[in-house]
From TrEMBL, chains A, B:
The keyword Transmembrane does not apply. Residues 33-52 bind DNA. This is TetR/AcrR family transcriptional regulator. It comes from Streptomyces endophyticus. PROSITE patterns: HTH_TETR_2.
Amino acid sequence: MSTSEKSSYHHGDLRATLLSTAMEMLEGGEPFSLRAIARQAGVSPTAPYRHFKDRDALESALAVEGFRDLLADLDGGRGLPASLPDLAEFAVAYVAFALRRPALFRVMFGKPCDDADDERIKAADALHELLADALDRVFPDADASALATAGWGLAHGLASLYLDGKLQAASGEEVANRVRGAFLAIASVGS
Amino acid sequence: MSTSEKSSYHHGDLRATLLSTAMEMLEGGEPFSLRAIARQAGVSPTAPYRHFKDRDALESALAVEGFRDLLADLDGGRGLPASLPDLAEFAVAYVAFALRRPALFRVMFGKPCDDADDERIKAADALHELLADALDRVFPDADASALATAGWGLAHGLASLYLDGKLQAASGEEVANRVRGAFLAIASVGS
DNA sequence: TACGGTATGTTTACGGTGCTAACAAAGCAT
DNA sequence: ATGCTTTGTTAGCACCGTAAACATACCGTA
């Protein structure tokens, strides 16, 4: 019950502290380096290496947090979608997450992530499965897998394009409307 | 007429040389730094700064090249699409470009590009217009703008997800099939 | 309770980066 | 020929990620 006491050596809870300060810097728009995190946490520049193999490992941990939060945003907010407009709201929430936490989103998606980070891969898979469930529920007759890929791709693409300034919109509300519009427009195309 | 002669000072054509060696390194999968480019070009580490304000400026120039190539891939290859399957092939070509030149694709899209780089913005806009034209031609009755956004978003999202390993496929052919599948699946949903 | 191993943090050091400032050489216009 | 401008060079700054050697505190066991 003395987690807040420090002996000034042996910080006591460095790993968690590093993660949370890293997340804060990420949200705050600061560039984020291992050294900066250590500095912020009041610890020596190489202390983080006792808890993370390298920068990638730290980023993976952050990405896992991000996936958890994104899932919560999508799922918790409104439950699984039951209609096409619900799906559009899913996409809106997805894009909103990306724009609200741009640096985190880039950490989550901006790299091959080829390292065999179990947790990270699991987190991304969970997202995919959630989407597949959702799509299957709305369009039970269609090829759920292809549709889930398409839906994810659409949402992710819009998120990326807005995030990187290739599509522009003044307000978050305008982005939401455009995303809704895109989602409904594409679904209204009866071959 | 002596562009290939050198006085050993005053390289003569450094800017172009820097761009091409940068592009080569990008395609070759090497990390790419200003200093590495200079090294490769046989010139001092800070010489590039006479031709590019900073790293971003060099990247912008590369991005412009990339957009030109991507447009050529989409347009030149098969002309403007006239049907939904043609559109799917557009998407396939888009994703293929991203997977064939991943580092370039990241340079083109992975950043806000908020600097007022005229050429770069123009290049991206040209892409958007091409897509809008294409979509309008295939679906003259629909909201061309919303559809173009949706189509671009879908293609771009699939490209990003495959590129960053969030979706996986063994071969390029498999990717192409999945992209086609996603495109057709989403279009076969009659609200 | 003393002890020794292990976990955690520190110091030092290396090579890399982007970038600036001061300097040098070549080209060009007068 | 002379001087301005362009283009290159060298030196140096602050930062980064990372490894190695060292120091300290914790924790289980004798």
